[in-house]
Amino acid sequence: MPGFEDLDAFPADFSGSVRLFPLPNLVLFPHVMQPLHIFEPRYRELLEDALAGDRLIAMAILAPGWEKDYEGSPPLSPFACLGRVATHCQLDDGAYNVLLMGLRRVRLVRELPPTGRFRRAEVEVCEDLSPLQEAADRAGLQRKLRQAFLRVLPILPDSQEQLDRLLSTDVSLGVLTDVISYMIEIALRQKEALLAERNVYRRAEMLLEHLSAAVTAEPVGPAAGLDAFPPLFSTN
Length: 236
Description:
Elements: E1 17-23, E2 33-38, H1 41-52, E3 56-61, E4 79-90, E5 96-112, E6 119-126, H2 138-152, H3 160-166, H4 173-183, H5 188-196, H6 200-215, E7 234-235
Parallel strand pairs: 1-3, 2-7
Antiparallel strand pairs: 1-6, 2-5, 3-4, 4-5, 5-6
Helix pairs in contact: 2-4, 2-6, 4-6
């Protein structure tokens, strides 16, 4: 098992084949830790396979209409987030509580034949793009993101130190956009669009639009489960 300092490292020998854990209401982003409660037999099998191997799981998003075939193989959105199991605990009933660390955006290339009860896919890793001609805008975009985020996010008990670290100038624009995108409460399809956008400057501008709209609407607030620590577990 890797140490926590290694959790964000991407494996050099990644094969491009991933285990798929699709959910209808969760978009995972790189650089964030997602709690999961895994109880369905097929996803317990998926987790056990991951723990016996590279510990990698791709959090996919079920496309609209998934309700008709949830127990089968409903269509998926084209982008997912590849994560690594940071830690896990098996409960008395056989279910698991898991912390999954987001690593990289991936695009689903094709679904592979299953080797068990869970789904697999071949994916393409989507690294962040930071065009040189837009580099001059980085500092300004980071400053605007910090200011807009603080206007819409209530300061939570005991969270000031974490927010200070998140909004520090040492955090890259790509990391900042991903963490804020995960934290705020916006529509699922808006989060999907942020996950699909590789250009960090476009992603920052998209996020600024959402944050600016939230200033004149109801407070955005944190995403579900982030107003308590440890955060609530998302169920499969």
